[in-house]
Design a protein that fits this description.
The protein has about 550 residues and is α+β, with helices and mostly antiparallel strands. The protein contains 14 helices and 13 strands. This is Phosphate transport system permease protein PstA.
Length: about 550
């Protein structure tokens, strides 16, 4: 036994066991997130429950089963429910009933002993709407331009509305949005001339002439928009709810109509992938509890890329100075200690620093110097994507510095001496020999920085991220990339949906789906960086020997 311990085998097995447990834990976590998240997109069967309470009252509940659990029978003593002798637990179902205009809550608990019959009628329909969530019921009548028509035209009418709605979105967000943006710029231009005392009658007439042209274009687009809205509001759908009440739903509010109980496996698979795609490319609705997360995906990726562009040169330059130029003195030791300590500072402290220094001090100064016509409304003196990227760049700077310096320290001194002996300057040696060999270590630092920055939320809450951003930081209006705008972030979106949502039960699967998407994006960014690192390692492997 003593020889076995001296051989080091126990520590090898301990290390292997620790790595295995960590790997199993990570895979288990990913499996939990994936199973809960992907089930959100699978079209569930729609049930009709016939209920009978203790008073003999009959009722019908229509919806999809979200969860089921067993509760102790003692908890139902106040409900005066007759149970079979010896019953210790009672099963209950959490059913999503939707129909918000008829009932106050989307979900309700049903006790299984009170269910007399459970069916899945093929005529049951799920209507996904732009507002008020889903509607479950039976289609009674299809109204086309005030007249009842056969129900087989339902798909055609939904496609028609989708076509008109896409045109409306383009008009509102692209055409009309561009005109509003140009009008605002002309207004600010006039105000700037006024502040500079250069607003002559000629300049004023020119600005107002451009405004009149834009307003004329705006009126034409507005007329076209109103015509499209009249077209899209033409048709209605009469649906019978579970209480027998007939509700009229305008097609302009309908996103999708699905008969879930008529779908086979392949049809459900197609619906599953279409809903996954819609989740990725659509915008959120209903206080972020429905719809997609595209603005959050875009904001997360843009912020991480900006952070990477900022932190990479500064981290590499700092590491080169500390290892190649700084002497081995007290100042260098203090700098290294400071870098290491920065890595242990809580992230929220970086957020407070970014808010106080970058937003209020630097951004406020930029507004005073370059955007006085916008004041008192701030341009850069308010949280935005630029300050978020810089704040996270400072947060991840120690990671890049330490990783780069480790890579520089592994390069033999003989390579430096050989290059200098052949007549190369120190800068040429650094640029042509040292940095190429150290590039895999630099990429390792960047990979770690990306992984940490993509998952940070606390500092972003202070320096740029918001619950709902009306405009993306990138659009078709000059200068195209608007670094002063606020943005959405997947990490904050998870926090907002999970803890600030008015509808907790509806938001729970969405939290898992968004978490899975965030993990996927982080893995994709890391795999891209790892691929680049591996190529650099193979490319410069010969220089190491």
């Amino acid at each position: 036994m003593k020889t076995w311990f001296k051989s080091g085998s126990p520590w090898v097995w301990l290390s292997a066991g620790g790595v295995s447990i960590s790997l199993i834990s990570v895979l288990g976590l990913l499996w939990l997130i994936a199973s809960r998240g992907l089930s959100y997109f699978w079209p569930a069967d729609i049930y009709q429950f016939d209920m009978l309470d203790q008073a003999g009252n009959k009722s019908t509940v229509i919806g999809e089963i979200y969860d089921r659990e067993f509760i102790p029978a003692e908890q139902l003593a106040h409900a005066d429910i007759t149970l079979a002798p010896g019953t210790t637990t009672v099963e209950r179902l959490l059913v999503k009933t939707g129909n918000r205009e008829l009932v106050s809550l989307d979900f309700r608990w049903l006790l299984v002993p009170q269910i007399t019959d459970t069916t899945t009628p093929e005529e049951l329909v799920v209507i996904e709407r732009r507002t008020n969530g889903n509607f479950y019921g039976f289609i009674e009548e299809l109204i086309l331009d005030g007249k009842a028509v056969p129900q087989n035209q339902l798909g055609e009418l939904v496609s028609r509305v989708e076509h008109f709605q896409s045109q409306i979105d383009v008009l509102q967000k692209v055409d009309i949005g561009a005109i509003n943006y140009q009008l605002e710029r002309l207004r600010l231009k006039e105000r700037k001339h006024n502040l500079d005392k250069t607003l002559t009658e000629e300049v004023k007439a020119d600005i107002h002439g451009q405004m009149d042209v834009l307003k004329s274009e705006y009126q034409q687009l507005e007329s076209k928009l109103l015509a499209l809205r009249e077209e899209i509001a033409r048709d209605q759908l009469n649906v019978r709810a579970m209480d027998g009440q007939v509700v009229t739903i305008n097609f302009e509010d309908i996103l999708k109509v699905t008969f879930n109980n008529q779908l086979g496996l392949w049809s459900k698979t197609g619906v599953f992938f279409s809903q996954v795609a819609a989740f990725v490319v659509d915008e959120p609705r209903e206080a972020n509890t429905e719809g997609g997360v595209f603005p959050a995906i875009f904001g997360t990726v843009l912020m991480v890329l900006l952070m990477t562009v900022i932190v990479s040169p500064f981290g590499v330059i700092a590491a080169i100075y500390l290892h190649e130029y700084a002497g081995n003195n007290a100042l260098t030791k203090i700098l290294r200690i400071a870098v290491i300590n920065l890595a242990g500072v809580p992230s929220i402290v970086y957020g407070v620093f970014g808010l106080g220094f970058f937003v209020y001090m630097v951004g406020g100064s930029l507004d005073q110097l370059f955007y006085p016509e916008n004041l008192p409304s701030p341009t850069f003196g308010t949280p935005g994507v630029l300050w978020s990227a810089i704040t996270l760049a400072i947060l991840t700077l120690p990671v890049v510095i330490v990783s780069t310096e480790e890579g520089l320290s592994r390069i033999p001194s003989a390579m430096r001496h050989g290059s200098l002996a052949l007549g190369a300057t120190k800068v040429e040696t650094l640029w042509r020999i040292i940095l190429p060999i150290a590039s895999p270590a630099i990429m390792t630092g960047i990979i770690l920085a990306i992984a940490r920055a993509a998952g940070e939320v606390a500092p972003l809450m202070l320096v740029g991220v918001v619950k709902m951003a009306p405009n993306l930081p990138l659009d078709g209006n000059f200068p195209f990339l608007h670094l002063d705008r606020k943005f959405m972030h997947l990490g904050f979106h998870i926090y907002d949906v999970g803890f600030q949502s008015p509808n907790v039960e509806a938001a729970r699967p969405l939290v898992y789906a968004t978490a899975l998407l965030l993990v996927t994006i982080i893995v994709a960014l890391n795999m891209t960086a790892v691929s680049i690192r591996n190529r650099l390692r193979e490319k410069y492997r010969m220089l190491e020997h």
